[in-house]
Amino acid sequence: MKILVLGANGQVGSHLRLVLREATFWTRQDVDLACAAELEKAVLTAQPEVIINVAAYTAVDRAEQEPGLAWAINAEAPAALARAADRLGALLVHLSTDYVFDGNSRRPYESTDSVNPINVYGRTKLGGELAIASVCSRYWILRTSWIFSEHGANFVKTMLRLANERDSLNVVDDQSGIPSYAGDLASVICELVSDIDDAHSLPFGIHHISGGPTTTWYEFAQEIFRSAYAQGIIARKPLVTPITTAEYPTAAKRPRYSVLASSEVLEEHVVTIADWTKRLDEMLGKIQGF
Ligand SMILES: NC(=O)c1ccc[n+]([C@@H]2O[C@H](COP(=O)([O-])OP(=O)(O)OC[C@H]3O[C@@H](n4cnc5c(N)ncnc54)[C@H](OP(=O)(O)O)[C@@H]3O)[C@@H](O)[C@H]2O)c1
Predict the structure, then answer these.
(1) For residue range 41-88, what is the model confidence (pLDDT) as tens digits?
(2) Is 121 noted as a catalytic residue in this protein?
(3) Would residue 188 count as lying in a domain?
(4) CA 200 to ligand 1 centroid distance, Å
(5) Angle between the 11-19 and 182-194 helix axes, to the nearest 10 degrees?
(6) Strands 24-26 and 3-6: what pairing?
(7) pTM for the model
(8) Among the four residues 97, 173, 220, 239, which has the most C-beta atoms within 10 Å?
(9) Nearest CA owner, ligand 1 atom 18
């Protein structure tokens, strides 16, 4: 099966390289997603049977200052991929985000719940979802949350860096979500794609992938320092003070609660992803630098 992966140098893309060894991997150097016409042409020429898009404009705060670029990469590029997939009869696998929700729910979000993004990044990612759903029929949009990995930039590495620089820090404790290990997401994608010819393969549409347990950024930070200290990665644990979102203003608003309920139908098809606490311990054991 001819598989094309876009976003090969990102967190999930780096893990896909390890599990989909036969696939073709494109980075920004191969094609710039900011140019939808060029992208569509390049994909049509490559003629993949499966297109996996894990590239995105993921700088949530910067997106507030660059809405046009974020829209081009997160909405127009997926639309171009969907048009190409439709013409080629290819399957499109696309990652999306918990930030399509406003965070006002009191229970985990199902994939059928109403969306209402509250920042530019979320609106552009929703734009990508809507474009895909309106253009092609063979697609899986997989929404996930709070990705971390030994590859790329993420909250875990930021916390480790701060631990080396400071004795104490403040971390927001009133935003809840579920961290997801990029290696697990890559394994899920790999497994789903391998089963595509199976009569019982995952239904096309939007699905949520997340493990558990639910946490806050403050609790996540505490767990990072506990594990990193126990493994000798940091020399001392900084003092962490829980603060509110109001005490830590950022350019982009963030949902107060963005817990995703993992799609049951997805769990019937793939191994459930492990608790992030276990994956965090393992990831810290593999980390090369931060
Ligand atoms: N990170 C999260 O916490 C999170 C949470 C929920 C959902 N998601 C979604 O999950 C997916 C994967 O996230 P991730 O954390 O693996 O992303 P990531 O590490 O930020 O990687 C994104 C990749 O996209 C590439 N890219 C950005 N602009 C591009 C352009 N104009 N042309 C070509 N490539 C471009 C980047 O290339 P360079 O390496 O050259 O910059 C990077 O390799 C994304 O769809 C994201 O929206 C992420």
Answers:
(1) 999 999 999 999 999 999 999 999 999 999 999 999 999 999 999 999
(2) yes
(3) yes
(4) 30
(5) 50
(6) parallel
(7) 0.97
(8) 97
(9) 10
